[in-house]
Amino acid sequence: MKRTTIVISILAALSMLLAACGPTPTQAAPTSEPAPSEGQEPEPVATEFPRNETLYVSGAAWGPASTWNPFQPGSLANTTGTIGFVYEFLFDFDPLTGEFIPWLAESGDWADDTTYEVTLRSGLAWSDGQPLTAADVKFTAELGQKYAALWFAPLWTNTGLTAVEAADDTHVTFTFSDPLYQEWGNYLYNLPIVPKHLWENRTEEEITTGANEKPVGSGAYMYLDNAEDRNIWARNENWWGINVFGKPAPKYIVDIRTSSNNIALGMVLKGELDLSNNFLPGVATLADQGYVKTYFAKAPYMLSANTAVLFLNTTLKPMDDAAFRRALAFAIDVPSIVNVAYAQLVKAASPTGLLPSLSKFDDKAVLAELGYKFDTAKAKQMLADAGYADVDNDGFVEAPDGSKIELEVTCPNGWTDWMAAIDIIASSAQEAGINIKAAYPDYGAWNTALQGGTFHMTLNNWAGMSNTPWTLYNLLFRHPIQEQMQSGNFGRYDNQDLFDLVDALAKVPVTDEAGMKAACSAIQEMMLTDMPMIPLWYNGLWSQYSTSTWNNWPDENAANPTLPTTWSGYWQMGGLMTLINLAPAE
Amino acid sequence: MKRYFGRKILIYLLTFFLAVTIDWMIPRFMPGDPVRNMLTRVSVNTNASAIQMMYDYYSHLFGLDMPLWQQYLSFWKSLFMGELGISVYLFPTPVKDVLLRAIPYDAFLLVPSILLSWYAGNKFGAFAARSKWLDNTISPLSYILTATPYMWLGILLAWFFGIVLGIFPIAGAYSFTMRPNLSWNFIGSVFHHWFLPFASLFLVGFGGWAIGMRNMIIYELEADYSHFLGALGAPKKLVRKYAFSNAVLPQITGLALQLGVIVAGALVTEVVFSYPGIGYLLLAAIQNQDYFLIQGCFLFIIIGVLLANFIIDIAYILVDPRTRRGMTGETA
Hints:
The complex is a heterodimer of chains A (about 575) and B (about 325). By secondary structure, chain A is an alpha+beta fold. Chain A is built from 18 helices and 20 strands. A 6-stranded mixed beta sheet of chain A has the order 8-9-10-1-11-18, covered by helices on one side. In chain A, strand 14, helix 13 and strand 15 form a beta-alpha-beta unit. In chain B, helix 5 packs across helix 8. Chain B is globular and about 90 Å long. The longest helix of chain B has about 40 residues.
C-alpha cells in the first residue's frame, strides 16, 4: 500500500470526525429574519450588554431553554419569564399582602354567584402592535375547553366554568355553574393570556406541546436570545404597563444556568451575578459578613416559599394509628432541622402547614389545644399511653399487638438539605423509641414510591405560595384515593368528613374571609387531631443578591416589599415588581 | 488490505450494535418513570386532575405506552432514519437539536486537549528520560498530575485562577455580557472561557503521557539495537530518535484505550466549569430519566470513541511498518 493512499484515507477519516464534531465552537448566531407568523423582531441590539443596564440572575433555569410555550407550565421550560415577562395575566397576586393586583384587568368581580365580570384596561397591546382585547381572553380560556391535555382544562371540567363571552373589546363575562371560587382566584393570576390572531390557526399539537419560538406577548420584556447556558430578555419599550406600573429598570436580563450552586455562589461573590435564587448552604454566614444581601438581615434570612410536609403512609401499620402519628409529630426535632440541616435559613412550620403569608387562616385556639412541638419525653409518654412499649428490650417500641416497628423515611438522593433533614427525623424519632431509618433512593424510584404509595414516610413540598389555603389542603387531602396519587395525599389518608370540609372551603367566595377562616378552622381541628401528615418547616424562597450594580432590592424594611425571585410562576407574584422597583447603584 | 479492513469494520459494527443496545437498555432498567418525573416539574398548584390526562398524552407521545420489544425495534428504525426522539427533560426539543447545539463545545474542548496533551506529553517524556534533573523534578509532578481526578484539578484551578486571582471566568463558554458575533472581543472571550477547562484536561493527560513515554524511552535505550547503534558510534541524538520511533507505538495504542476515559473526564470538567456541552446534559438527563437524551449522549460518545479508534488503527498502519507488511502479506 502506497503511503499517499494511507495519508488520503487518514485525511478522509479525520474529516469525518470533524464533520461529526461540528464546524464551529461557538453557538450559531440567532437567525435575523423574523418568523413570519410571529410579527416583528425587536430592534437590533448591541452585541454586548452594558453592565449598568443589565441584570444577571440565576437559579430558575436548570437546563438549556426548550420551550416558550406559556402552556408548558412550571419549571419545565427552563425559560423563566415566558410566563410573566412575555405573557401576562388578568391579575397579579401579592402573597405578602394577600391582595390581587389588577394587571391586564382594570377590575374584576363577581356580579352574582355564578357570573364573574372582567373589565380590561384600555390601550393594552401585544408586542407586535396589535391590540389586546376581550377576544384574546375569551380565546385563551376556551382553549382549555377544546384541549384536554392543557393544564387548565379543569377550569371547565372542575372549577365550573360554562361559558366565556366578550361583550366588547374590554368586557369579558365568565359564567359558571357551582363555581369553585378559591380555585378561580388562582386561575386569575396563573392563566397566561395569548394573542388570538397568532394562535387561532395553530393545530392542537402546536398549542399543547409546540415550542413557540420567538414568542409574541404583551409583557414588560421580550425574548431576545438564548444559548446553552443563558436566556436573554430585552425590555419592551412600548409596554402598556410603563404608564401604569413604571418602567423596569434593567434593559436586559440575562438568566444564567449554572451547573451547580457553588458556581452561582462564586459568581455572586465576584459581582457577576446580581440575583441568585439558588439554594446556597451557608449563605447565612456570607450575609452576616456583608458579602450578599438577603430579604431578612437575620435568621431565617429567606422568605418562606413552601411547606415541607412529612407524609405518612396511613395504609400501613403503625401509621394507620392516629395516636402513633401524633406521637411522632412530637418526636421530630424540628429545631435541629432548622439550625443544623439548614443553618438557620428556614423557619419551623406552623402545625397547620400554612405559610406565614396565609397565617391569618391559622386558628390560634385550635393550635393552642392541638399544636405540637419537639418534646421527646412527651412523645414517649404518648406512645406509652397508646400501648406502644418496648417488649423485647431492643431500645425501640413495639406495636400494641407486639409486632416490631421498623420504618424508613425517604427523600431523593442528592437533595442534600432534605437528606440532612431526614437524618435528623430518623435520629430524633429513635430517641423517642421509634425505629426509623433514613434512606435516599434515586429520584425516579422515590417518585414512583411516592405516587404509588409504597413508601413508609417521605417529604414533599408541592404546595407553594398561593392566594388561598385551599392550595395546601388540596395537596394534603387530595381525593378520591386512587391507585396512583400523582398530586397529593400521597399517604392515602381516607377521611370523607375532612374531604367534605376541603370541598366546602373551595366553594367559599374569596371575599368571604370569615367564611374561609371558619372552613380552615374545621379542617385544622380535624387534621391536628388525626395528624395524617406532619408539616415540619418552610423551605425558603432562596434569594441572595449583590448591590454592586443594582440597588433598591426588597427586604424586610421596604415600604412595599415584593418577592426577590426569578423562579417560574413568581413573576406575577411580585417578581416583576421587584424589577420595576430596582434602581442603578451609584 | 481488504481483508484487514473488512475484519476491522465488522468488529466495529458489532461493537456499535452491542454498545447501542446496552445504551438503550440501561436507562430503562433505572427505577422510575420519565413522564411522571417530567410532570412533577409541572406546577401542580391547583390543577391536579389534569395530571392523569397529561400523563397519558405524554406517554403516548414518547411511545412509552408500547411494549418494550416494540420500543426497541422502533428505536433502531428511527436511528437509521437519523432520528433520536424527543427529549423528555428538554421537551419538546428533539434530541438531535439538543446534541447539535452542545457537541461543538465538546469538540472544541476535547480535540485540542487530547491531541496537544498526547503530543506534548510524549515529547516531554522523551526529553525528560535519562535527564537526571528533569527526572527528579518533573516526573514526580507528572505522577501527581496523572493521578489527579479531573474534577478535583478542575475545582482547584477554578478556585485559584477564578476566585483567588480572578483572572479567569468560572462559568460559561463566553462572557455573559455578549451575544455571539464575529469580533476579536468575542473570540477572545471564547478562548478566555475555554482556557481553564482545557487546561485541566490537558494537564491530567499530559502527566500520563509524559510518564508513559519516559518509561518507554528508558526501556528502548536499554534495548540491543540502541546499544549496537551506540557502539557503532552513532550520535546520541540519533539513538534517541530511533528509540522514540519505537516507544511511540504503545503510546498510540494507549491513546485508543484512554479515549473513553478522557471523554468521561471532559463531561466532569464541563460540570465543574459550567461549560456547555453534553457533560451537564448527560448528568441532567440521567437525573430526569430522559431515556432519549441519555441514548443520544451515549450514542455520540460511542460514535466518537469508535471513530477515533478507527483513525488510530489507520495511523498504526502508517507508523508501524510491521503492521503494514503483515497486512499486505509481505514477510519481514
